[in-house]
Amino acid sequence: MIDQELIYMMAMTRLLPLASDKQRILLQELGSATAIYEQRYHLRDILSKSAWRVADALAGMDSELERCEMELHYARSHRIRVLALGDDGYPTRLAEAEDAPLVIYALGNADLNPRHVVSVVGTRRCTEYGRDMCRKMAADFARLLPGTLVVSGLAYGIDIAAHRACLESGLPTVGVLAHGLDQVYPRLHRQTAIDMLRQGGLLTEYMSYTRTDKLNFVQRNRIVAAMADAIVIVESPSRGGSLITASLAFGYNRDVFAVPGRVGDACSEGCNMLIRKSQAQLVSSADDIIQAMRWETESTTAPPCQTELFPQLNADEAAVVDALRQAGADLSLTMLGTTLQWPVSKIMSTTFALEMKGMLSMLPGNTYHLKG
Description:
Elements: H1 4-15, H2 20-30, H3 33-38, H4 43-46, H5 52-58, H6 62-77, E1 81-84, H7 92-95, E2 103-108, E3 117-121, H8 128-144, E4 149-152, H9 158-169, E5 173-176, H10 190-198, E6 200-204, H11 214-226, E7 230-233, H12 241-251, E8 255-258, H13 269-276, E9 281-282, H14 286-293, H15 315-327, E10 331-332, H16 333-340, H17 344-356, E11 360-363, E12 367-370
Parallel strand pairs: 3-4, 3-7, 4-5, 5-6, 7-8, 8-9
Antiparallel strand pairs: 1-2, 2-6, 10-12, 11-12
Helix pairs in contact: 1-6, 8-9, 8-17, 11-12
């Protein structure tokens, strides 16, 4: 059975793809999309002169109805959820944004309204340090807050690293697309997207067969920012889409966090700048985020094992362990770097490997504790 109100809302998004805020105001004034359709030829009489462009566009709703009916049939035949603003399954955090899309399309089994949602974004040209940080944060969230939903954009670099890290750690993850659900862009990420359907899903505001357009990716960023409680920028140059997402997050009153990088590292210039200007909080672990957000942890950490039970360490890992043993106390990230004369990126990637082996734990204040 066709839901005519939903069809009218879909038609509105087709006619005014960049005016979600104006559509929402009109819905509030007239009460429903059905009412807007019934008044479509008289909207100039209802709206102020500044909104006549909107009135003229919506006068053409009839031209879009058949396309919207076809899309609804397509969605239902492919198990795609079509969620309108106000529906129970629509992301409540996203609904708070004035420019939230009237209709979204969701595929997969993700709960879009879990207790905790974090968006992870960053440069498309990430380094191994950035990928390591994604793996570390995903593993920590899986251990401390297993139901945390991680949102990103399925793009190259940090986005896909975050999604894959979640899949490895058993965290639910959702990719927000800049096109319809009939395709995956980039194609190289198709298998990851398929895997995400079993452990999260895909989300978009665009109908099937929508052309992949540069402007759509910019629009997509507002959903990534608005869907979450907190936004984490892992690596970003001084200019880029991640900083746009951070700016949008400020407007939505979301908490913004940034992972610091080595001074002079082009991939971390944006993160370091946000931290320097106090526009983002410095974080190096999921625990930092959890504490800053005052989220109650649901730790599933197993009892500590004896150090000697773990596999043989490589030279870098052994050097970190020796430094902590000789110090006879917990050491901060800075102190470890000073002791070993290593860059921050090398310290963090090595300590991450040791944490995965159960040798280290990170304490508040970016301090490392040797177990056993």
